[in-house]
Amino acid sequence: MRSKWAALLTSAALVAALSGCGGGNGGDKAASSSAEPQTASEQLVVKASNWKFDQEEYTIPKDTPVEIKLVNEEGAHGLQIKGADVKLSNGKTSKIVTLKEGTYEMKCSIVCGTGHLAMTAKLVVK
Length: 126
Ligand SMILES: [Cu+2]
Fold this sequence. Notes:
The protein is an alpha+beta fold. The chain has a domain at 42-125: Immunoglobulin-like, CATH 2.60.40. The protein is 20% helix and 36% strand. It has two helices and nine strands. The longest helix is centred in the first third of the chain and has 21 residues, at 2-22. The radius of gyration is 21 Å and the shape is extended. The protein starts with a helix and ends with a strand. The protein binds copper (II) ion. Residues 77, 108, 110-112, 116, 119 line the site of copper (II) ion.
């Protein structure tokens, strides 16, 4: 029966190894970050390029933790959402927020060039 036990132990070790590295998103940072204990149930990706956001209007659900994520596809842009305490740029590209129903103004928060002032969009929360 020695070989059977060996097989059991081997598979147990394998399971432990697999579950050890697969868990959670951004596992290494989760432990040290206490500022944002929430877990987002939705994600909104906003893509920025010279000089616009990829949509004129974004919609997210109200009263729901949503991770707002900024992706710079071209150039260096920021994302600020008025009234939602969101200010993203290259140093910090995502934030989890829970917003009340309404329409929020989004704009670029970095003076990025000639089209900077045109970089606006709407965030509809409903
Ligand atoms: Cu800008």
